[in-house]
């Protein structure tokens, strides 16, 4: 379904990053590294665009929730030969708990949103410190599904992967040399123990990407998608229901219309 020329796409994204920095008259990029597919792919592309010396990776664990991910991040930093002085590791637990502890038994989703927003505060503060831009790591699947925290992980100065579905990011990652371990990891926002994107969705990225592609790019109806893709009716409905439920995220803040 996604038969892209990934060598060409790599070149386009690298050029995009270079132009973005040139236009902003800055040299450095701050990126939150989670050890996952999207941030790892972005980091490799950034190195190709501006060199390891200009990457400022930030690791933002909460308590001991991200032990395995931290090891993956260390591997990425080592592979890219990023200077140790450029790497920040900040445990966000104290900052998050200062907010969460104001309410007894806060729901896990609200706590996750707070974690995401606290992380973005740190990223933007470091960007200000180093006169850098913040690189976002959102893909097209997450964007269309509304799978992000407003003013949290969605906040960024530029988004290298926003035009690629998750399936395409995985293919691009293989092309540029992201490790097999990271490519095959279950995607997770890392907001609570055992959380995975697909478990939260109730459907896979593979199915979602087909439905999203056929809906937004090919303009097919739900019935046509079911016939064309072979994906069952319930899954198609789930994907499109999530899109509809979160569509408001793409249209805020609301402003009055002049008459």
Automatic annotation (TrEMBL):
Q: Which family does it belong to?
A: Belongs to the NAD synthetase family.
Indicate what this protein is called per its UniProt record. Answer: NH(3)-dependent NAD(+) synthetase
**Any GO BP:** NAD+ biosynthetic process
EC category name: ligase
> What gene is this protein translated from?
nadE
What job does the chain carry out?
Catalyzes the ATP-dependent amidation of deamido-NAD to form NAD. Uses ammonia as a nitrogen source.
Q: Name one GO molecular function term.
A: NAD+ synthase (glutamine-hydrolyzing) activity
All copies of domain NAD/GMP synthase, residue ranges: 12-253
């Amino acid at each position: 379904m996604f038969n892209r020329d990934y060598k060409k796409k790599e070149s386009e994204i690298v050029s995009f990053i270079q132009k973005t920095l040139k236009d902003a008259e800055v040299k450095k990029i701050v990126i939150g590294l989670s050890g996952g597919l999207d941030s790892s792919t972005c980091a490799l592309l950034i190195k190709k665009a501006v060199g390891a010396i200009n990457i400022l990776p930030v690791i933002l664990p909460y308590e001991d929730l991200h032990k395995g991910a931290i090891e993956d991040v260390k591997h990425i930093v080592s592979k890219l030969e990023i200077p140790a002085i450029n790497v920040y590791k900040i445990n966000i637990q104290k900052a998050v708990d200062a907010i969460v502890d104001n309410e007894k038994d806060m729901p896990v989703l609200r706590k996750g949103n707070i974690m995401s927003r606290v992380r973005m505060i740190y990223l933007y503060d470091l960007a200000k410190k180093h006169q850098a831009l913040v690189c976002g790591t959102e893909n097209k699947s997450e964007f269309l599904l509304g799978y992000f925290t407003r003013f949290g992980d969605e906040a960024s100065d530029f988004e290298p992967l926003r035009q690629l579905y998750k399936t395409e990011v995985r293919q691009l990652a293989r092309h540029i040399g992201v490790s097999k371990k990271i490519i095959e990891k279950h995607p997770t926002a890392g907001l609570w123990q055992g959380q995975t994107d697909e478990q939260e969705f109730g459907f896979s990225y593979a199915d979602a990407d087909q439905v999203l592609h056929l809906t937004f790019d090919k303009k097919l109806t739900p019935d046509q998608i079911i016939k064309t893709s072979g994906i069952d009716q319930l899954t198609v409905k789930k994907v499109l229901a999530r899109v509809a439920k979160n569509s408001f995220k793409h249209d805020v803040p609301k402003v009055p219309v002049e008459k």
